[in-house]
Amino acid sequence: MPASFAEHISIAADRWCPFNCEAGSELPGFMVEVAERVFSKHGYEVEYIEMNWSRAIQEARKGEVNAIMGGFKSDAPDFVYPKEELAVLENRFFVRKESDWVYKGIDSLKTVQLGAILGYDYGNELRAYIQESGAEEVTILNGDYHPLSHGIKLLKRHRIDVLIETGPVFWYNAKKLGLADEFKVVGLTKKAAPAYIAFSPALEDSSRYAQILSEGIRGLRASGELASILAKYGLEDWK
């Protein structure tokens, strides 16, 4: 088993702003700030590392980093999850404003070019469709740091017809690109799911870290600190 990280907790993810943004910036992301606030009270330093999402899961699974940030249980079922989530989110379908396409189930995707990010889990039906469709009907967005920004630009340029993403993340990034007025929502996936900071199954301290984080989130909520952090990113408490 890989050695545990002493006094240092490394958390990896691709950029998923406003939840995790540019590492080392003034606004590194809501989840980053929560992790830093919680673990600093226990003497730990949090290192947020930007990397490709698929690689982040692989590195955490091996114990090379302590955790992934912004993960759903379907992304990595074998990981150690806190009792407290850090968001409850649903995936939505985004198109250009002039589009008349509307999501009416999996079959409706067969008439459009869908953009989806490599390694993201969109639920069983969509996962199967993406895996079976191939490059002709689905554009897989890849990149170390910001595949979503690339996807938004492709949508604007008519290179793809539909992009799937959670609402807060899409709108935050579209606004940052100055393109928020160009798009609209035309459907969503079945139901919202909790998103977590999830810990490596290979490291013995993961259960303890998960417990510390859960207790810390409850404490931040009770003190009002959670609401203050959320407000910096234009978000509200989901509970």
UniProtKB/TrEMBL annotation:
Domain Solute-binding protein family 3/N-terminal span(s) in chain numbering: 8-237
Pfam families found in the cross-reference section: SBP_bac_3
This protein's UniProt keywords: Signal
Record family assignment: Belongs to the bacterial solute-binding protein 3 family.
Name this polypeptide is given: Transporter substrate-binding domain-containing protein
